[in-house]
Amino acid sequence: MYPLKFYPILKERLWGGTKLRDVLKKPISNDITGESWELSTVEGDISIIANGNLEGTSLQDYINKNPVDLLGKSVVERFGTDFPILIKFIDAKQNLSIQLHPDDSLAKQRHNSFGKTEMWYIMQAEKDANLIIGFNKDVTKEEYAKSIENDTILDLLNYEAVKEGDTFFINTGKVHAIGAGVLLAEIQQTSDVTYRIFDFNRKDKNGNLRELHTNMALDAIDYAKKDDFKVDYTTNKNSVNEMVDCPYFKTNFLELTHDLEQNVLERDSFSIYICLDGTAIIKNEFGSASIHKGETILVPASSSRIGFKTEGSKFLEVII
Q1: Helix (H, G, I), strand (E, B) or coil at 39
Q2: What are residue 51's DSSP bridge partners?
Q3: CA 64: distance to chain centroid?
Q4: Are the beta carbons of 187 and 118 closer than 8 angstroms?
Q5: Could you say which of 21, 196, 202, 305 is catalytic?
Q6: In CA terms, which of 15, 146, 229, 256 is 20 to 30 Å from 240?
């Protein structure tokens, strides 16, 4: 039950670039890698433990054998042996497609899946980089459908300029896209259900347009203009700064300038640490693991304390 590291699951994407290699030091040889899945039990993309005597073990197999010790009693009562969180790094050299995700009810009905609530932490952004989040006015379903038909959907969307450290919470149903020049960390429900509604008329390497999910999206979209996505949070050093607290995950920001120890005896959940900058050693009573920028560690729920040995590092902490 020591802190666990995992081999990254790397994904080539039409819109991907080289920052996962150049900035986060991922083992990549091509120039179009868009995603590094850091922690996943999505079918077909299950993380493999990369450290200690469990190296080579699949995360799902380890959960199946030790559900309560690894996940926490309350997490098992709610999700069984399904790991409820998916962690990614995303490098957008080009604009991603404009998309949205269904809520739990619709995703269960249509796909036998969780919905997909997510958050983004901007790790790096080039000048004039932006995100698309929501609409710039209240839109009716009929207006939206007409804009898709007329290829004018971009006129209805809200654009947000971004810089390092900006954080955004994306509810299910909210239309969104990551813009070119953005490198971010993504925390989301374990789901790979996405409705793509516009893809800038791009063609893949075989000259084909990518599939759109126009009709499926109609009943999943939140058509209201809402200013509910930018996350305000404090950045007090050597303390826990709350960012997001939603039914699916809780995320905190930690900037450490010296060693820190947390008492997590009452925390009935696993803990995830995503390293945003610097280096550290993360330890519990069962062992330790080193971590640097662009790496992720899972600390099992059976831990009573979690310690950080560092001279300077930044983390996102994720719990249930």
Answers
A1: strand
A2: none
A3: 23
A4: yes
A5: 196
A6: 229
